[in-house]
Amino acid sequence: MLDSATLFIASIAVDFGLAVYFWSLWIGDRRQPIALWIAASTSSATLGSLCVTLRDIAPNIVTIWAGQLCFINVFVFLWVAVRLVHGRQRPGVMLWAGAAIWTLLCLFPPIFQSENLRSTCVTVIYAAYCLTMCGEMLRGGMRRQRLSRALTAGLLFILAASSLALTIYTAFNQEAFSPVQRSQPLAALWLLLFLVIYIVLIVAVTTLELSNEAERQRQVAATDGLTGLMNRRAFMETAQGHAAAQCDIALLLLDIDHFKRINDRWGHAAGDRALTRFATALSQATDQEVAGDGEQRPLIARLGGEEFVCMLVGPDARKAEKVGERIRAMVERGGYANDGFGMTVSIGVAASFAGACDVDELLLSADRALYRAKDGGRNRVEHEEQGLVVSLDATSRTAKAM
């Protein structure tokens, strides 16, 4: 037979151990808010179990009001952790709503002196927070670990339902909950269920946070730290995937003209600003020209130094030239380099039909076109496709327009 007093003592030991672990985790790295809220939750669980264990021994203000207040905060603090791990904001007023409602209810003698009314009120608060966490687990926005989140939500629902069922049972049997003074198998069974589900929920939240951290590290490894664009490795991995999918692709290889002069004359800080502003120009120009037509979003990356690349999936060579010319014109107008210096860019364009060549070959073709743009006077767009070379600069386009 389950002994409720023994289970409460075991619960205190388990909760205390978890609290020590998560407090040490947070103290070691205070950039981990999830660890802080789990530590607060397990600390509240420890204090709550200790208070309830002292029922009929310590004053009611400790065993009833303070004990149940701690248990309410167990769910509240864990709810905050669940929200944060899903990338949502910490709740405001609702953070302390359950504790405030419980305190106000205890101020009314008819409620505070009635075991049934107290149990009903506090169980409703427990169940509300459990169901709220269910909703957080099942809401959209995180595709990873759907099965584990659904399982955790189901266990929370079971905990809420079992809490309400236990309250109804004790109300009909007029049985006060006193784990030290008498053996109460149903109460002990509920405590065991609570302890198991609580530990599972902590494990689920911790696992989700570890998954989030792995994703953040993956993004850092794939991102250029200065411009926020993809780096070379991430670009090559993604671009190879498009090439393997037999897509029509076009590459724009871009190099800022005379970038060394900017660094030498204006300093490296100015060079960094030039790179970030150029990255902004590149992103906006490609979005305006391509994304609006329903085609796939372009892949943009900084390959290194002042060299950038843009992959367009779907458009033909002429569309890629149009995008390249728009970028060239935006940079030349100086809208992204207004620190006292101007910028121009040379662009090499290479396009390929589905399956005609791989990304490395296309980069080599774009690089050859880029060198022609540099040799031809810079601030121009050169295009190469299957041996066909097309030279596009500002002067030739003006002549065509005339």
From TrEMBL:
GO BP annotations, alphabetical order: cell adhesion involved in single-species biofilm formation; negative regulation of bacterial-type flagellum-dependent cell motility
Natural source organism: Xaviernesmea oryzae
Enzyme Commission code(s) on record: 2.7.7.65
GO cellular component, one term: plasma membrane
Positions of the GGDEF domain: 247-386
Molecular function GO terms recorded: diguanylate cyclase activity
Protein name per the record: diguanylate cyclase
Name of the top EC class for this enzyme: transferase
Superkingdom: Bacteria
Regions that span the bilayer: 6-27, 34-55, 61-81, 93-111, 117-138, 150-172, 187-208
Any matching Pfam family: GGDEF
Keyword terms of this UniProt record: Membrane, Transmembrane, Transmembrane helix
Catalyzed reactions per annotation: 2 GTP = 3',3'-c-di-GMP + 2 diphosphate
